[in-house]
């Protein structure tokens, strides 16, 4: 409420009409946007544009939304200043469609100053062109503002990104609200990738399996989602989404980004990630904070500017990407972790899956808080963009997967115990393939308290038994469970039955 006791005027009504405003270039082509950004471009050896930003990660500690945070008059002024900037500065205004699902498609409008056209170029390459509808969600990004602040009005669909020139802020401003809006529809937004796998089962019959991967940035989500699983025709595995999707009540999974992917490039290697490497070295890619020499030579292995170097790549250049972005039916959900006390894979019941969802155990990366990169962290749903009660999010996840009878797993993409045993891409891909085939044999292991593989074709599971790689395993496992229980106790809205299932 304002001081007069009346509702404040919706900020979106303060925004200019981009079709008539003299200070706005409305929906320019990608070629025109690149021309606006030409002064900041280094052209790579592949002919793609490369840019360097001042901010190189999200400003999570400067982000507030009007549902979970108390908004003051100062916060309201920040939002008003952003709206006013759209009407006063020379701006690019770009509309794009996020999603294709009949129940989860939103028109997104981004305002960004012309001198920061590189932000608009990268962002516009992620989403498909508009069909002319009015915007559902609007973001104004003003990097020159004298304070760094991200403020969100979820109900109004308006985000102000002030004082940061990081492209990831623009991208997540819309994906955050995509997840919020789909939750209002009875679904659940997920910081996750999705893929469709077609394989022969143990009897030789063809089966289609929908897989979804929840994980923080830089934990292997893009690698596993985009991996073709080394299958030969007629078997195949195709990526549908890389970053954010929505599990809907009917079991379908709605995609969000229809044109591109925003991938991490540090350490990108052709041998390990051939599909991603090929797309990142195509002329259609847009590089951000990648080490690029003046002559255009690209060094993906070098963290010259940041370990959070990025590239927007095109789905059309990614061999494993399907034409579709929506998954008809989810069958398997994977929680990607780097916790060294977890096995390469464990099968979870619905309550344990909700525990894994709430724990969101991983390691901090340079995409989140660079100062804490490498530290063990917990993020509910491995999703730093949840709006609303996190406990209710966990309850809702449990109820959805129970109703849909989805199989859930936690998968470790790091190392075991004392780092003596790595779980590499080969091991993870073997596990994913055989889970899709339905050929993994399971056993309830008393020592770990988990359901772990007794047999996986192509993998010697005995080599990956976690207690064999940890000194004083029982002591470490007990301490971990106590930490987990203490962590879950802070979520008052979380169903006690979920807390009781802590492993």
From TrEMBL:
One example GO MF annotation: ATP binding
Protein name: phosphoenolpyruvate carboxykinase (ATP)
Keywords, sorted A to Z: ATP-binding, Decarboxylase, Gluconeogenesis, Lyase, Nucleotide-binding
Reaction catalysed by this enzyme: oxaloacetate + ATP = phosphoenolpyruvate + ADP + CO2
Bias-annotated ranges (Polar residues): 40-51
Region (Disordered): 1-59
Pathway: Carbohydrate biosynthesis; gluconeogenesis
Membrane-spanning parts: none
Keyword Transport applies: no
Listed GO biological process terms: gluconeogenesis
A Pfam family assignment: PEPCK_ATP
EC number: 4.1.1.49
Family: Belongs to the phosphoenolpyruvate carboxykinase (ATP) family.
